[in-house]
Amino acid sequence: MTRAASIVALLCALASACQRPVTREPGVERPREPTALRPPLAPREDTVVALHGRTLADPYAWLRERDDPRTRRYLEQENAYAESWLRRVSSLRARVREELRARVIEDDASVPVEHGGFAYFDRIARGQQYPVYLRRALAGGDEQIVLDCNVRARGHGHFSLGAMTISPDHTRLAWSEDVSGAERYRVLVAELPSGTVVAQLDGEPGHSRDDDEHAGAIGESLAWAADSRTLFFTTLDEAHREWRLWRVDTRSRADATLVFEEPDPQHAVEVHRSRDDRTMVMSSNSQITSEVRLLRADDPTGTWQVVEPRHTGLEYEVEPRGDALLVLTNDGAPEFMLARASMALPGRRHWRPWLRPPAGGSFSGVEAFAEHVVVSGRSEGLPQVWTVDARGQLHAIAWPDAAYAAHLGDTPEFAAKRLRLHYSSPVVPDSVYDYDLVEHRLELRDRDEVPQFDPSRYRVLRLHAPADDGAEIPITVVLPVSAAGQVPVLLHGYGAYGVSYDAEFEAQALPLLDRGVAIAIAHVRGGGELGRAWYDAGKLGHKQQSFDDFVLAAEFLVRSGVAAPGRIAIEGASAGGLLVGAVVTQRPDLFRAAVVGVPFVDVINTMRDASLPLTAGEWDEWGDPRRAADFATMVRYSPYDNVRAQRYPDMLVLAGWNDPRVGYWEPAKWVARLRAEAEPGPLLLLRTDMGSGHGGASGRYDALDEQAVAAAFVLDRLGLDQ
Amino acid sequence: MNRLALVLPLAALAACKPCEDDCREFIELSFASTATDGMFASTRYEIALSSPNASATCTIEVDAAPFEDIECDGDAVAHVDDGSGGGSSGTSGGGGSSDGHRRLVVQWFAAPDSFSVVARDAAATLVLDNDLTPAYQEQQITACDGQCRSFSREMQLPG
Fold first, then answer.
1. In chain A, whose CA is at the least distance from the CA of B127?
2. In chain A, where are the structural domains located?
3. Rounded to the nearest 5°, which phi and psi values hold at B54?
4. Contacting residues of A for B28, CB less than 8 Å apart
5. How many angstroms separate the CA atoms of A656 and A368, rounded?
6. Residue range A575-601, pLDDT digits in tens
7. What is the CATH number of domain A74-101+454-717?
8. Could you confirm whether A372 is annotated as catalytic?
9. What is the ipTM of this complex?
10. A659 a catalytic residue
11. Residue A687 has pLDDT above 70, yes or no
């Protein structure tokens, strides 16, 4: 788990309404501010943090206390204040919501995936918030419901699936589900096709499902052993880290057995079964170090074998392939390479280098099939999938768009000769391809037919902003074809964890585009768009580089004639919320408005508290403020610690009460401090979803309103309030 | 430096060639330099495209006159785009790139499921060796009264 999961949530936050001309000159006259309610002021306390000879005021530390009645009262006051302002734009919000709703594909089904004699697929129907998972025997017969998420979600304000896995004999389904947004799961096992639930796990032995604690709760990872009765699952420690691996016999009433406990707070555990069904694979990874263990899948009570003991900085993952082992590693290969070993001798000294990425490329994943190997990675800043032929030659799947998102789909059969791929771009809706691994041929299986979407109305640019150090920062821009001259822009960014923020199709961007707003993504350092070096150049002591790149991208958009000066809005969520929080602090003059989702803005306080989720596991990402050098870097950019008496852009800040990744108190503390210390005047809204977590609303219709709110805010602030 | 024009035509806008070409299926590859100043490392490149059923080879002088057709072996034609925004090449239906950077453009009138592209510099040194499976864009072209498959992609040569 990282703060990374919210790119989707972040992208789910844009839209707008009609086509009337701009009625005022943005940047000259600010829109009217609400008068119905006064912004709430949170009480200040004299809490301070002393570190490395510095004393940092932390006047809103009390907001972290969930049980302090003042906390909930303050958040409710903020919500009421936000709603009072949003009523001003209720008409715009409603129009945008209707436009978004009109583009929902009401009845949809996925392209079936063949596995074990069945075709598995999902379907969603008009009015349903969640999909229904189904299957049909290839030999014929009726559809069988595998899992109906609408049924599972009934009675809950939130529902999300963690993992869902079919037993090797296809008679049982195990899944993990979260009904609060807190990402504490319960595991259920059902017999198929009856759907009868035959087992339920709420946590470690002795843990109650009603416990409001992370410790002992169930994590996301699940895997069946070959016997189709033994299930492996993980549980959490108090810091929400998946740290224990358990084994349970789902056909008996015996308690689960502890298999492995990871003592290092920077490492988290994950388990899966290899595609060839012969091996269980358990990884215990930190941000920069890996350790993998293997077990014969037909011997679930056996002894796990370490592939290579952890060495700080050595990253690797393995892909069993019969008696062979493929190893993807950074061992002497900064952009990773593929090595070969054997199951009998899996250790590092037996790794035989096999394939390296082409110049300018990087590897990030490997998939083994009986007769084929598939490698995924990056090339020229864009996603790339290669197949490997018998001569060891890489064979690239080539996409024509200037910017796009492409990733491997589900191809569960080891003997597969066709590979499932997903593709989209800002002007190509989600598309499913099958790739013939023998004939090297792509077949388009399905493309979403988005209502009221005409791709000829939009165009995509891929720009590069030159930085002083010689780097070129890629920027993806989507423009209405009708755009003439400089236009208002909504600029997104992320830049963390080596995650690549690729340009996908986003129906929620269309209401903005249709009102003349360009949508842009700055692919700043800290992300993985240009490989590992790009990531490393924007983390730890280099974190400021992400912010500098984002500012550079915004300035470049103006200089190159795309963006109208003074009419740039920005958006980022989670770690991208830190990016936005930092740049509005450092360059408030550059941005007109900001949507800041579940932002990681209380950097020093969060990263010095190892009891919080993610903290210890991310010291290799952000640094540990208990170390003087790391503190010196982090304290310079931490938005909460750098609130200034300056004029900030108008901001809509979003939070989730049950968010385990970025505590609700981070955005709450930041907003409280901004209200007290920043120059008064700009609009500042805090909206805390009291029933969800990091990703916001979970149902597809519920999410539309969140998107409409963000879009209405952006449009109004850009002066496009019709 | 302004790289605004490092812009590829949209897939959705990447229509077929004009009707005088009878909507022939084709692949267009545009080769840019990896150097930030856009300069190529060699004065000449030989670019060979091949599939099981067809092949073509183009020899392109980097300093060739912009937008003038260069004959190739096989069913292909090439030209140099000088990045001035001129010309009428490409599948975008009008104009080349406009970032001031040269590109070597090859149009191969074939539509294989997959193909290899090999480039050698003036010293016959191998500088590019790729196997590609293109994701063709299928489009109905009313004016041509027929369907046409096209694929365009920018690639990079050492700078």
1. A359
2. 74-101+454-717, 106-155, 357-450
3. -155, 160
4. none
5. 39
6. 999 999 999 999 999 999 999 999 999
7. 3.40.50.1820
8. no
9. 0.70
10. yes
11. yes
